[in-house]
Amino acid sequence: MQKKKQGGKLWLAAAPLYLFTLLFVAGPLVYMVILSFQTRAEGYGVLNVFTLDNYKKILDPVYLETFGQSFRLAVTSTLIIAGIGYPFGYFMAKCSPKWKKRLMMLIMIPFWTSSLIRLYGWMIILQAKGALYQTLHFLGMDIAPLKILYSYPAVVIGMVYALLPFMMLAVYSSAEKMDWSLVEAARDLGASPVKAFLTVTLKLTMPGLLSGVILTFVPSMGLFFIADLLGGNKIVLVGNLIQDQLTRGADWPFAAALAVVLMVMTSLIIFLYRKVTHSTELEGIL
Amino acid sequence: MGEIILSLKNIKKRFGETEVLKGISLDVEQGEFITLLGSSGCGKTTTLRIIAGLEEPDQGQVILEGRDVTKLEPHKRNVNTVFQSYALFPHMDVASNVAYGLKIRKVPKTEQKKKVEDVLNLVQLGEYGKRYPSELSGGQRQRVAIARAIVNNPRVLLLDEPLGALDLQLRRQMQIELKRLQKRLGITFIYITHDQEEAINMSDRIVVMNQGIFEQMGTPDEVYNHPLTSYVARFVGSANIFHRDGKAYAIRSEHVLFSKEETYPYRGVVKEKSFAGGQLRVLMQLPDGQEITASRHGIDAQVAEGDTVCLGWEPDHAVPVRE
After folding, report:
1. Which CATH number fits domain A53-277: 1.10.3720.10, 1.10.287.70, 3.40.250.10, 3.30.530.20?
2. Which of B163, B164, B186, B165 shows the shortest CA–CA distance to B176?
3. Number of domains chain B is built from
4. pLDDT in tens, B54-87
């Protein structure tokens, strides 16, 4: 009884939040969907003529290839991130509380600086005669100036760098919750360390790993500025294409259509995640 | 009985500064129900973990079926454990939990199914195969943990306070069931508890542990009626320790006689009277400061707090013990 009364009042307290969400999240989304069916005006702006042409345009091989490239890059980055981030999160969960704090600090520090500035840092490192080249040279390696910057690998490095913390935290948060006596039970029942890891630890940390995959895969489809800065104009991702259409191309409806398709794709991935893990929240971000 | 199935030889183990096991030795016979009894922190769980292979001793040997397994990894030992927290796999249903050990050892599917069915029937959970651990009560989880261990037909089953989390009534029932199960299967049980009643009810032999050593080993009768040390007397029999002429004697409270008449050799003052579990307990203090507790059935006692009384015991009931 008491609870219900309180709940009624709490609704009022939460009202501004709903209003804010409606205004600044739902509003723009609806506008974007509407926009994607409109027609581009000569010069600037849009016409109120409804059409499916924007979506048809995406089927053009040039644009499909952009989606393809984005997808490949996202898969590559996510695999590398999982390869580094899973072991890190796993071992971090096994550390003493003191070391957990220290490692958490190391993960958090980069977030205190703008990601744009950190990317410029990577440009300095990867330049033909940049910090990496200088270091290798100093170590006595006689090598030609590097050709990493403005290439596919540079973009992958940037993606991995920018999104790795999300994987680490997601895996850590589910490994942290692990009851390690379950691994002992598995060993006691005859499982080798590898078998115990595969049948127990991996299964129980799967929600963290999958949520890490979502948290890295979804953004890596759209982080246009990484491809912009580290890939020059050689690497065009969906994010770059959208930005390009909005600014230089001034084709807002097409940009909106691209964004809608990207959103549908990522929503589909999150839907799949929920289906597989039966969880409603992403591990590691809450 | 007869064949020694498991031997611990002078096992020592320290964690950092603390010496948890100070050289313990034990021979366990095939089919025996042996209980390690002691308060928390006495090293009993560490002993169990060393037998299971989850911990390696600093010194000493573990001999299982005549083979030195001291350094053998846990999955290569024919020993299974029922963990205190049960440690059931939350992502598997009951049947898969029980089948885990069989699956790992690649027992054929049809045989797996039959064994799992049999063992679940044995622990009266025949209908529960498809349930998940989170859907079971504490007592049911306990049974699953036992089923998961015994389905592998281990030579030795280790049980770490398996009834610790259950309420009193269920505990009593499970004690009887476990004992029955052990007799039926003929598996050697090494059982850990801090509950002396449980130890006395179930064990063939009790090992009383205190601060990393074995204080006394023996049948429940020996340990209860003939304690060798004051710790055993206090812990197992809740006995009084009476000091006289530099010697210590254990006297169980039900053997302490007292009266307001001058019939007994010692004089004391009644400090406290309490009634619990159908027993009246009277705490008396002797002039030299020693405290002696007497217990009686019923509440009929003609003494009150502050009374001076005489107390004593039959000479046979004062058992000399080591400190």
Report:
1. 1.10.3720.10
2. B163
3. 2
4. 999 999 999 999 999 999 999 999 999 999 889 9
Q: Does B50 contact chain A (CB < 8 Å)?
A: no
Predicted confidence at residue A1, as pLDDT, reads 41
Is residue A60 classed as helix, strand or coil in its secondary structure?
coil
SS3 call for B35? strand
> Hey, what are A4's tokens?
């219900």
Domain match, B213 and B261 both: no
CA distance A184 to chain B (A): 7
pTM of the model: 0.80
Residues B103 and B197 in one domain: yes
Is B80 touching A (CB cutoff 8 A)?
Answer: yes
> Averaged in consecutive runs of 10 residues, what is the pLDDT profile of chain B (323 residues)?
87 92 94 93 93 94 93 93 93 94 94 94 91 92 93 94 86 90 92 92 94 93 91 88 88 88 87 84 90 82 83 89 85
Which chain A residues contact residue B54 at CB under 8 A? 184, 187-188
In whole angstroms, give the CA distance from residue B171 to residue A171.
39
Contacts (Cβ under 8 Å, ≥6 apart) of B307: B260, B269, B270
Does the beta-carbon distance from B75 to A185 stay under 8 Å?
no
This model of the complex carries an ipTM of 0.84
* Separation CA A251–CA A255 (nearest Å): 6
What's the pLDDT score for residue B28?
Answer: 94
pLDDT digit string (tens) for B131-183?
Answer: 999 999 988 999 999 999 999 999 999 999 998 888 888 888 889 989 999 99
**From chain A, which residues contact B within 8 Å (Cβ)?**
179, 181-182, 184-192, 195-196, 199-200, 203-204
Tell me, what's the pLDDT at B54? 93
* CB pairs A-B closer than 8 Å: 59
**Of B85, B88, B104, which has the smallest distance from its Cβ to A190's Cβ?**
B104
Give the HSE-up count for residue A93: Cα atoms under 13 Å, Cβ half-sphere. 22
State both tokens at A26: 């739902």
Among A184, A192, A195, the residue with its CB nearest the CB of B87 is A184
Mutation target vs B (from A174, A183, A188; most B CBs, 10 A cutoff) = A188
- Report chain B residues whose CB lies below 8 A from the CB of A204: 90-91
Residues of B in contact with A199 (CB under 8 A): 100, 104
* List of chain A residues whose C-beta atoms are within 8 Å of the C-beta of residue B105: 190
CB distance B48 to B193 below 8 Å: no
Same domain, residue pair B43 and B94: yes
Tell me which DSSP letter residue A2 carries.
H
Short-list B301, B308, B321, CA closest to B239: B321
pLDDT at site A114: 86
User: Which residue among A179, A181, A189 sits closest to B104, beta carbon to beta carbon?
Assistant: A189
Chunked in runs of 10, what are the mean pLDDT values of chain A (286 residues)? 55 85 91 91 81 89 90 93 95 93 91 87 87 85 81 91 92 92 94 94 90 89 85 84 86 92 88 76 54
Helix and strand numbers, DSSP H then E, in chain A: 14, 2
